[in-house]
Amino acid sequence: MEEMCGIFGYIGSEKASPILSRGLKNLEYRGYDSVGIATVSSRLETRKDAGKIDDLRARLNLDEVEGNVGIGHTRWATHGAVTAENAHPHIDCENKVAIIHNGIIENFYELKTSLAERGHRFASETDSEVIAHLIEDELSKDSSIPGAASSWNGCSFEHACVEAFKKLRGSFAVLAIHEGEEKIVATRKDSPLVLGLADHGTFFASDVAPFLDWTKDVVYLENGDLVVAKRSDLQFFNLDFGEVARPVSTVEWDLQEAKKGNFDHFMLKEISEQAETIQRACLQNMEVVDRIAGMVRSGFGVFFIACGSSYHACLTGSYLFSKVAKLHVNVALASEFENYEHFLTENTLVFAVSQSGETADVLEAVRAAKRRGSRIVSITNVMGSSLSREGDELLLMNSGPEICVLSTKTYTSQVVMMGLLACALNGDHESCMRKVKDLYMDVYNLTSRSMRDQLKALARDLASEDHIYMIGRGLQYTTALEAALKVKEVSYIHTEAFAGGELKHGPLALIEEGTPVFVFVSRDNEDRIISNAQEVKARGGFVIGVADWNNPVFDRWIKVPDCGDLNPVIQAIPMQVLAYELAVQKNLDPDKPRNLAKSVTVL
Ligand code: F6R
Fold first, then answer.
1. What is the set of active-site residues?
2. Measured at the alpha carbon of residue 343, what is the angle toward residues 341 and 349, in degrees to the nearest 5?
3. Out of 138-142, 411-415, 434-438, which region has the weakest mean confidence (pLDDT)?
4. 90 and 120 in contact (C-beta within 8 Å)?
5. 494-499/467-472 β-pairing
6. Cα gap 202→71, rounded to integer Å
7. For the residues of 45-63, what is the DSSP string, one character each?
8. Which end of the chain has fewer CB atoms within 10 angstroms, the N or the C?
9. How far is the CA of 385 from the centre of ligand 1 (A)?
10. CA angle 295, 300, 305 (to 5 degrees)
């Protein structure tokens, strides 16, 4: 059973439950369908159900629960029903141990069977519940630890947790609490877990954004770490009880960046930040960029791997590498990468691109490539994420937190970084930086009120459509792919993109009287794509041009400047705004489209 979840924990001098509610609220953007918390005071108390945080906060009086130690969880079910029983935290038979878990326990069936044979009673269908029972099982055994390091205090709860964690196969971030003990015991393996250190206590979360309200001092955990947090004490061990040191880092992200400010939605806020964020994408350590360019040149076979929007940025990157640097790269969806794995050697260079740095398909592909000795360049927005620590080289997008489930600002940053690398391959990264600088006002204008009003009017006209199509060629084709993804995932309108040249190989059959077709045009391929637009028009299609001049074939025109190789940035932005306005028009929440999660941590 695979699940994508948000984890939050707190221990300190403050009452835990209101902090947990706020932390879980901050985690909402990851997507979820159930919520729960557990705290320790005089006894262990768990409250959980299916539903939204605000609703459960009121209905279950979440903030009333006493205790200075607590764990909270948002569950997004991919298997198993959305029920109170399946929501976390999960408890043992005697309601003494509570755990929350993100990840997948691969051997849960055998663990569950053997625990059940020993009399444990299970309340849920989840794999996670076995962890609570495993700890309970260990607690009932002798707690002495042969060979334990002297720094290890030998407490039976920590011991029981370690023994239980060692039995787990798969990926997991786990927080555990125990009745009568003011402590949180935590571990991680291949699932994200970050600590936040404040004056009054310690926070645990799946990423840093949810605790930025309290602190920017963070500790990133390594696989196999064990954390024992008490009210005024924090220790790090490995699972063999050896004490380990973990440095404290300061997050660059600003708290305000994780807040909506005056915007109605994060999506619009993040779209509006792009004049700035594309500049920040260029702020790379050029020694690293040049070193990576050297690796590309000396490599034998270069792959770009990613999912979703990041994959579209990679496709765009492959066109840019070809056009600007005359270099061929292979692009693969991370989930399809295994089909190419036999090509990988020690000379292969793999660029893994992931905003979150936690996408399971990407991480699996990276690990497969590493097993074959290939070198990895990680491109991510999240410092401390799993991907940021897997690669031989790391480039950060510098976009600040992206809270909306949809990628907007990080997509354009990825495209800019691809452009920067392509130029660096020509020994001229400065030309890219100059061009990006020149885009500032253009991008700013594309997110202005007047542009939004124009796109809002278009959204009103399109909101009741069942199908929208988009076409382009070259860099405009990859832009069309990304634009179609944005529109479909947030408005639920079926939207599909085609390469202009493919129209007559099938898709033209879809065009009826009034079918809306967006046509992405650039100066360097205008003749061919305009002739595709005419083919659409001749079948009654309603042509919406995205171009820097108004061609007579257009029924509607979205005016964008022509910025050559950076057109994928410029042309994506009005499409993001249109997608946003379509969602608003249809009374949908643009920040949290149905069925989607921000970090896709399952395969
Ligand atoms: C679309 C979107 C997704 C992500 C995809 C990969 O708006 O956000 O398609 O691009 O899930 O996510 P990352 O980049 O975090 O690996």
1. 5, 598
2. 90
3. 138-142
4. no
5. parallel
6. 12
7. EEEEEES-HHHHHHHTTGG
8. C
9. 15
10. 75
Q: How far is CA 401 from CA 9, 188, 259, 267, in A?
A: 20, 22, 9, 12
Three state DSSP letters for 457-483: HHHHHHCCCCEEEEEECCHHHHHHHHH
- Residue 488 pLDDT: 98
| CA of residue 598 to ligand 1 center, whole Å | 7
| Mean pLDDT lowest among 75-79, 96-100, 127-131 | 75-79
* Pocket probe mutation, ligand 1, options 78, 271, 305, 310, max atoms within 8 Å of Cβ: 310
Report the nearest atom of ligand 1 relative to the CA of 306: 16
**2: pLDDT strictly greater than 60:** no
- Among 266, 356, 383, residue to substitute to test ligand 1 (most atoms within 8 Å of Cβ): 356
Query: Residue range 168-194: average pLDDT?
Result: 94
Atom of ligand 1 nearest to the CA of 411: 10
Q: What percent of the chain has pLDDT over 70?
A: 97
Rounded Cα–Cα distance for residues 544 and 566 (Å)? 21
Q: Which residue has the CA at smallest separation from atom 5 of ligand 1? A: 308
User: Which residue has the CA at smallest separation from atom 11 of ligand 1?
Assistant: 308
- With cut-offs at 50, 70 and 90, classify the pLDDT of residue 150: very low
Atom of ligand 1 nearest to the CA of 486: 7
Mean pLDDT of the region 205-223:
92
Quote the ligand 1 centre to 408 CA distance (angstroms): 10
Q: How far, in Å, from the CA of 198 to the mean position of ligand 1? A: 31
103 touches 601 (CB < 8 A): yes
- Please tell me the predicted confidence (pLDDT) of residue 3: 58
pTM, full prediction: 0.83
Burial of 260 (C-beta count, 10 Å sphere; 0-12/13-18/19+): middle
The dihedral through the CA atoms of 554, 560, 563, 566 has a sign that is: negative
Distance 355 CA to ligand 1 centre (A): 7
pLDDT value of residue 142: 55
- Dump pLDDT digits (tens) for 557-572: 999 999 999 999 999 9
Secondary structure (H, E, C), 14-33: CCHHHHHHHHHHHCHHHCCC
- 306-363: per-residue pLDDT in tens? 999 999 999 999 999 999 999 999 999 999 999 998 899 999 999 999 999 999 999 9
Return the pLDDT at 152: 46
pLDDT number for residue 148: 43
Mean pLDDT for all residues in the chain: 93
What DSSP designation does 167 have? T
Return the closest-CA partner of residue 361 out of 4, 33, 108. Answer: 4
Reading the block at residue 520, the tokens are 């992405």
